[in-house]
Amino acid sequence: MGIRRRIDAADGAAALVRWALWADADPVPEPLPRPVLAMAVRFTLEELAERAEGNSVEVRVPPFGVTQCIPGPRHTRGTPPNVVELAPAVWLALATGRADWAAESAAGRVSASGLRADLSALLPLFGTL
């Protein structure tokens, strides 16, 4: 049973490309419009949930989105035992291959708790943009 996607794939990919172009700009231009950033984050979270369908790990990218993924025991109440939380820029960099899970974790930019909370085998979701 696949996940129910809310972001149109073409719109999500366009937002992700727009973020990548913005992230590569030197100097960085005005802030990326919030709706574009939100769509890029939500699109990549949906992609993660589709590729690693399950409910044992909760991935949080506040304030834009959260998803559950990875097969295993289902979590239903309270704080999940396996949680990953990170900033939108870090999440998008990991999802696009611009950053490395181990390096971002070591630098403290990824908060991951629980035995199943290592997403390194699933990332990047997309080749380097």
Report on the biggest sheet. Answer: 4 strands, mixed
Low-pLDDT residue spans: none
Number of helices in the DSSP assignment: 4
Helix content: 25-40%
Q: Which class best fits the helix and strand makeup?
A: alpha+beta
Protein name: Bacterial SCP orthologue domain-containing protein
InterPro entries: SCP_3 (IPR041629)
Domain Bacterial SCP orthologue: 34-125
Report what the structure shows.
- This protein is of the alpha+beta class.
- It has one domain (9-113): Nonspecific Lipid-transfer Protein, Chain A (2-Layer Sandwich).
- The chain is built from four helices and four strands, in the order ααβββααβ.
- The protein has helices spanning 9-24, 34-51, 88-95, 101-106; strands spanning 57-61, 65-69, 83-86, 110-113.
- A four-stranded mixed β-sheet has the order 2-1-3-4.
- A hairpin with a 3-residue loop joins strand 1 and strand 2 (65-69).
- Helix 1 (9-24) crosses helix 2 and helix 2 crosses helix 3.
- The radius of gyration is 14 Å and the shape is globular.
- The N and C termini lie far apart (29 Å).
- 34% of the residues are buried.
- The mean pLDDT is 92.
